[in-house]
Specification:
Helix content: 25-40%
Largest sheet: 10 strands, mixed
Radius of gyration: 19 Å
CATH architecture: 3-Layer(aba) Sandwich
Strand content: 15-25%
CATH class: Alpha Beta
CATH superfamily: Ribokinase
Order of helices and strands: EEEEEHEHEEEHEHEHHEHHEEEHHHE
């Protein structure tokens, strides 16, 4: 059984489902408008567990991995529910630090139809992930490390992660960089070292251009491959995904005829599916399909984890799903 460690946040999510008439055009985009002083009836309230590392560890556990989470959770009611959920999902919680008298990360998600939503959140105890509570020795003993979005205060652990990955027998590595890392760019020393040891980099098109300071996703792809990353996946929502290993580049569309209920956690599900595929020796096109299938399942349900699929279901859907991955010129 493959052993994995997900590093990052765990968040308790409260979904508040609103009606579509609260969505209004706002400039070039849309917004959810809540008039001051109004009392607005909601359609539903749903409590779920989320957060990048929580989502990826649960996803990998369902896909048959021996998964653990390295992060920080409060001793409050939200933290208790997060721990309870992880244990129920078979995730090892030994590398989680519990902090007393502080609030766990918490989100209120205003959700409308078609997957449209606004997330209000506090990082809570997620900001306390530090080199002093990062389980470096345990990370050395897994097959794959998955670094999710982390807070700016957490970036001090990057040196320790590089040390783990640089070992001759070190684990493979998935990285989904967060805002502070993206803002600093690929040439920032810590980012540069981490990229050199990255087996799977996951970014959307906007993030890819910001990270590389380029104007197109094609130029961003070339720049990212040039950093030494083994496999780069750039997503663009409904437009699908491009992926490259530096030699071959592939395009995978989204699955059609999927009713999108909620897009929260879609990126984590996508990355989890790809990581599982590469762990199991599948090709880049098959990895693209696995990520797309997992993400499509997640967006068809409320919450980031309800739609995550199992190893058996993934293998069945890979065989049965008509999803055409095509090679494109570099």
């Amino acid at each position: 059984m493959n052993k994995t460690m997900s590093i990052g946040g765990a968040t308790y999510d409260l979904f508040v489902r609103t009606s579509t008439d609260l969505i209004h055009e706002c400039g070039e985009g849309k917004s959810i408008a809540l008039p001051l002083g109004d009392k607005i009836k909601v359609e539903d309230v749903i409590e779920t567990c989320g957060g990048g590392a929580s989502n990826s560890s649960v996803g990998l556990s369902r896909l048959g991995c021996s998964a653990c989470l390295c992060g920080v959770i409060g001793s409050d009611q939200w933290g208790e529910k997060l721990i309870e959920n992880l244990k129920k999902e078979g995730v090892n919680t030994d590398c989680i630090t519990i902090v007393d008298n502080e609030v766990s990360s918490f989100s209120i998600i205003l959700s409308a139809s078609g997957g449209e939503r606004v997330i209000l959140y506090t990082p809570g105890t997620n900001v306390h992930l530090h080199d002093s509570n990062f389980h470096k020795e345990e990370a050395k003993n897994v097959d794959w490390v998955y670094l999710n979005h982390i807070q700016e205060q957490n970036c001090v652990i990057q040196d320790d992660i590089v040390d783990v990955l640089a070992d001759d027998n070190g684990p493979k590595f998935t990285w989904n960089p967060g805002g502070c890392q993206l803002d600093k760019g690929t040439d920032e020393p810590n980012n540069k070292r981490l990229l050199e040891h990255t087996d799977l980099l996951l970014v959307n098109a906007t993030e890819a251009k910001k990270f590389t300071k380029t104007e197109s996703k094609e130029d961003a792809m070339k720049a990212l491959i040039g950093t030494g990353v083994s496999n780069v996946f750039i997503t663009e929502g409904k437009e699908g995904t491009i992926a490259s290993d530096g030699t071959n580049t592939f395009y995978c569309p989204c699955l059609s005829e999927i009713e999108v209920i909620d897009t929260t956690g879609a990126g984590d599900a996508f990355g989890t599916g790809i990581t599982w595929a590469l762990l199991n020796g599948l090709s880049l096109p098959e990895a693209l399909k696995a990520g797309t299938i997992n993400a499509a399942s997640v967006v068809s349900k409320i919450g980031a984890q309800a739609g995550l699929i199992t190893d058996i279901e993934m293998r069945k859907r890979l065989a049965d799903t008509n999803l055409s991955v095509v090679e494109i010129s570099n």
